[in-house]
Design goal:
This protein is mostly helical. The chain contains seven helices and four strands; from the N terminus they run βαααβαββααα. Helices cover 62% and strands 6% of the residues. β3 and β4 form a beta hairpin. The protein is globular.
């Protein structure tokens, strides 16, 4: 996942450290990386499929290896639709899809930063805006996935799934925020 430092230039800060908007090429590269290259794209689908398997959701898909992969594929499809809608709407609205690491130190400020930036982003001018494409994507993926779920699933189930996906975004940002420390821990000898 691509992370860049977010700079809110203070008086006297060099322009080179100021916010730089995402380019079309960067947006496309981030989209491809986050959905097809980064192992986390598959890990989240396998984890989501595993949680659904444990909860037997939906029960019509039963249990076993085939059911697990059906749930995992369903999750991957939902995540892909989610990110496709988010990326497209963000591009059209001139909003940034990157996660920007906190320039702060300490666990609490960084956790709060990750939560805050789940709901907001920057536009091409660097102004803070509500990240509405993120949530449009969450609910688009949830409603689209209802198409391949059993017939008894309704808009209420899609709304619940969209809410869960929106909550998952907070966890995703926390992982991105602390990814440097996680990498250091994993690469210790």
């Amino acid at each position: 996942m691509v992370s860049v430092a977010l700079a809110q230039p203070a008086p006297g800060t060099p322009a080179s450290q100021a916010y730089v908007p995402i380019t079309g090429a960067e947006r496309w590269k981030l989209y491809v990386n986050d959905n097809f290259v980064d192992p986390l794209a598959y890990l989240r689908a396998f984890a989501s499929g595993g949680l659904q398997q444990l909860g037997d959701a939906p029960p019509e898909w039963r249990q076993g290896t085939k059911a697990y992969f059906e749930r995992t594929g369903s999750s991957f499809g939902q995540f892909l639709i989610d990110d496709t809608v988010r990326t497209g709407l963000s591009a059209a609205a001139g909003l940034d899809t990157r996660y920007h690491l906190c320039k702060c130190s300490g666990i609490k400020p960084r956790v709060l930063h990750a939560i805050k930036w789940t709901f907001i982003t920057r536009n091409n001018e660097g102004k803070v805006r509500v990240d509405w494409p993120r949530f449009a994507g969450d609910y688009a993926g949830a409603f689209a996935s209802n198409a391949w779920y059993p017939d008894r699933y309704s808009y209420k189930d899609a709304l619940r799934s969209g809410h869960q996906q929106a909550a998952f975004e907070i966890g995703s940002n926390l992982l991105k925020e602390f990814k440097p420390e996680i990498r250091k821990l994993l690469h210790r000898k």
